[in-house]
Structure to design on (162 residues):
C-alpha cells in the first residue's frame, strides 16, 4: 500500500506544477494585412496614418484658422498620366452647420470632375505628390465637426497622336 501512495504523490505534484505554468501563460493574436500594388499603376500615401487615422483640423486660436491636413502620395502610372477627382463635395459637419473644404493634390484643386494631377512623364517613375486639405472661409461656428474626403484616382493611357 505504501508503494501506491509514493507513486501517487509525485504524480499529484507534477499535475499541480503543470497547472501553475498554465496560469502564467498569455497569448495574443495580431491581425495583419498587406497590399502590393502593381508596378504599373499605384497611388499610395507615404504615411499610412494619413488614410488610416482621423486627421485633426481643429481651430487654431493663434492663427484664427482651422488646421490644415498635409501629406504626400507616391504616384505612378508607367503607361500614361494620373487623373483624380472627389467622390463628393468635402466638408466638415456639426449638426446643421458645415465648413467647406478645399483639397489640393500636386497643387491642383480637386473637384467632382476628373482632371490630370500628375503628367505622363512625371508618373512614369515614382512621383511624390503633395496633398493639402484646408477649410474655406474664416468665420467658423463652435461645434464638434466630422467629415471625410473621398478621392478617386484613374490611370489614363496616353493620347495617341496622328
Amino acid at each position: 500500500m505504501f508503494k501506491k501512495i509514493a507513486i501517487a504523490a509525485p504524480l499529484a505534484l507534477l499535475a499541480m506544477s503543470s497547472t501553475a505554468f498554465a496560469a502564467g501563460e498569455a497569448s495574443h493574436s495580431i491581425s495583419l494585412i498587406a497590399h502590393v500594388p502593381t508596378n504599373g499603376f499605384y497611388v499610395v500615401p507615404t504615411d499610412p496614418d494619413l488614410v488610416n487615422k482621423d486627421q485633426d483640423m481643429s481651430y487654431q486660436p493663434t492663427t484664427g484658422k482651422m488646421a490644415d491636413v498635409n501629406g504626400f502620395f507616391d504616384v505612378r502610372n508607367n503607361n500614361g498620366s494620373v487623373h483624380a477627382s472627389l467622390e463628393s463635395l468635402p466638408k466638415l459637419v456639426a449638426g446643421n452647420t458645415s465648413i467647406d473644404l478645399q483639397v489640393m493634390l500636386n497643387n491642383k484643386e480637386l473637384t467632382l470632375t476628373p482632371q490630370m494631377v500628375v503628367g505622363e512623364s512625371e508618373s512614369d517613375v515614382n512621383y511624390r505628390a503633395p496633398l493639402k486639405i484646408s477649410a474655406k472661409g474664416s468665420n467658423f461656428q463652435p461645434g464638434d465637426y466630422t467629415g471625410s474626403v473621398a478621392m478617386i484616382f484613374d490611370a489614363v493611357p496616353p493620347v495617341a497622336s496622328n
The mean pLDDT is 86.
